[in-house]
Design brief:
This is Hexosyltransferase. Belongs to the glycosyltransferase 31 family. Interacts with B3GNT8; this interaction greatly increases B3GNT2 catalytic activity, independently of B3GNT8 enzymatic activity. The protein has 423 residues and is α/β, with parallel strands linked by helices. Helices cover 37% and strands 14% of the residues. It is built from 15 helices and 14 strands. Strands 1, 2, 3, 4, 5, 6, 8, 11 and 12 form a nine-stranded mixed sheet that branches. The protein has a three-stranded mixed sheet with strand order 7-14-13, with no helix packed on it. A two-stranded antiparallel ribbon has the order 9-10. A hairpin with a 3-residue loop joins strand 3 (196-198) and strand 4 (202-212). The termini are far apart. The model is unreliable at 16-63 (pLDDT under 50). Bound molecules: 2-acetamido-2-deoxy-beta-D-glucopyranose (3 copies). One 2-acetamido-2-deoxy-beta-D-glucopyranose is lined by residues 107-108.
């Protein structure tokens, strides 16, 4: 009797177990299928024309979750970059080499959470004077820059969390603007920055990068809020939008990209007063081979530059602040780079102190991650001959000109796309 019950009991338990295992397997399979179904791919996307995907499916990034600073990929900082920036008494040089030493001796903790190294406690000029003896001869705005050099995490005021949600984005325009440039932004939206599907199914998106106007300016906060809601293309952070804060603007933009648009193939970063030839840019990007595409950093390349020492000019850099050559860099009016460099660029920026000139800082960051810029003659950041500036035919083969006001931009765009145009 007892034996029979025990046997029955064992059989019953065993079948229950089998059932449980079987069903949990089933739901696993279902779950995987569901997950797969939510990953948009060129093959399942029926809404658009066949996509000319530059990076083929074996290399294509699946729609990944955002990359948080804690999940940054391992970083190598190039020897060339380290060696070309002299170790000398200038403030920035000292700061850089101190960060590089931290990087080399870094324990796992600092490598995983590099952002924790920075403590935003605006320093007083008196304190800074211990490190920069002639700080009182610096232009006043330089003082603001120095005081804020450690502040890297301003709050986001307007976000666009859905910007890259639905499709695989081929090109993202990231346009540096300032609050009061409404008209420039509108001209960009209506012309070369138009979002949507272009030839060959390439998706293009646009964001404008903004800080805040100064306390002395009339407040534009309400109008900016309206604009952000209306057009869904403004990214606004709570910092003072000045020339010397452009490196900060870039840093927060990279962070935003990793969070919201980590899968974008290419990024165009530029000013709001340039004229970009979107179709020519797309054609160029599409023509790249996979190796070029994955390491792209191109534009008008400025080589062999050194700091300018005339205090009256915008790009002035005091001798006691930085001493050394500049790396080759793409003119900040507009340049292109590959989206898969974003994690490394963001990561390395924790080991390169902010610099008052953002395109020079870019050059340093790319060099530090081992990327050399390639020049493209279609980028005219110093503009073209005066007599050609309204000529749509001349612009057909160019990728970018600087600079055009909103009216010129509108006219040029209209004429370039006119069916009556014969070049
Ligand atoms: C994708 O690229 C890899 C190498 O980059 C190549 O071996 C493969 O054949 C390509 N696949 C397709 C479908 O083009
Ligand atoms: C860092 O982490 C790796 C594995 O995650 C480990 O092998 C290594 O010993 C760690 N290094 C230090 C300095 O803690
Ligand atoms: C950058 O923004 C911060 C935060 O608003 C501000 O304190 C600082 O003065 C700004 N720096 C410059 C150089 O304008």
């Amino acid at each position: 009797m007892r034996k029979k019950y025990t046997k029955f009991f064992i059989v019953a338990v065993a079948s229950c177990l089998c059932f449980v295992i079987f069903f949990s397997r089933l739901t696993d399979v279902e779950r995987t299928q569901r997950d797969l179904a939510t990953i948009p791919s060129a093959a399942t996307d029926t809404s658009s024309k066949p996509t000319a995907v530059l990076i083929n499916t074996t290399k294509k990034k699946t729609k990944t979750k955002s990359v948080t600073p804690n999940e940054l990929p391992p970083l190598t900082i190039s020897v060339k970059f380290r060696n070309d920036i002299p170790k000398n008494g200038a403030f920035w040089n000292r700061k850089l080499h101190s960060l590089l030493r931290q990087f080399d001796s870094g324990n796992n903790e600092t490598h995983r959470e590099p952002h924790k190294k920075f403590h935003c406690q605006p320093e007083s000029l008196e304190l800074l004077q211990t490190n920069i003896q002639d700080i009182h001869s610096y232009p006043p705005l330089y003082g603001d820059f120095l005081k804020g050099m450690e502040c890297r995490d301003p709050p986001v005021l307007h976000d666009q969390p859905g910007k890259c949600a639905s499709d695989e984005i081929f090109l993202l325009f990231a346009i540096k603007s300032i609050p009061k440039h409404f008209e420039r932004r509108q001209a960009v939206r209506e012309t070369w920055g138009r979002e949507g599907l272009y030839e060959n199914g390439l998706q293009v998106r646009t964001v404008f990068l903004l800080g805040r106007s100064s306390a002395d300016d009339p407040s534009l906060d309400k109008i900016i809020s309206f604009e952000a809601q209306q057009f869904k293309d403004l990214l606004v952070w709570d910092f003072h939008d000045t020339f010397y804060n452009l490196t900060l603007k870039e840093h927060v933009f990279f962070k935003w990209m990793l969070d919201r648009c980590p899968q974008v193939s290419f990024i165009f970063k530029g000013d709001d007063d340039v004229f970009a030839n979107t179709q020519a840019i797309l054609n160029h990007l599409k023509s790249l081979d996979p190796a070029q595409a994955s390491t792209l950093y191109t534009g008008q390349i400025i080589s062999d530059a050194t700091p300018l020492r005339d205090p009256k000019i915008k790009y002035y850099v005091p001798q006691s602040f930085y001493e050394g050559p500049y790396p080759p860099y793409a003119g900040g009016g507009g340049f292109l780079f590959s989206g898969n460099l974003l994690p490394s660029l963001y990561h390395v920026s924790f080991y390169i102190p902010f610099y008052p000139i953002d395109d020079v800082y870019n050059g340093m960051s790319f060099k530090a991650i081992g990327i050399t810029p390639t020049k493209h003659d279609g980028f005219k950041t110093f503009d073209i001959r005066e007599q050609d500036r309204e000529n749509p035919c001349v612009h057909k083969d160019l990728l970018l000109v600087h600079q055009r006001n909103p009216q010129q931009t509108m006219r040029l765009w209209r004429n370039m796309h006119s069916s009556m145009l014969t070049c």
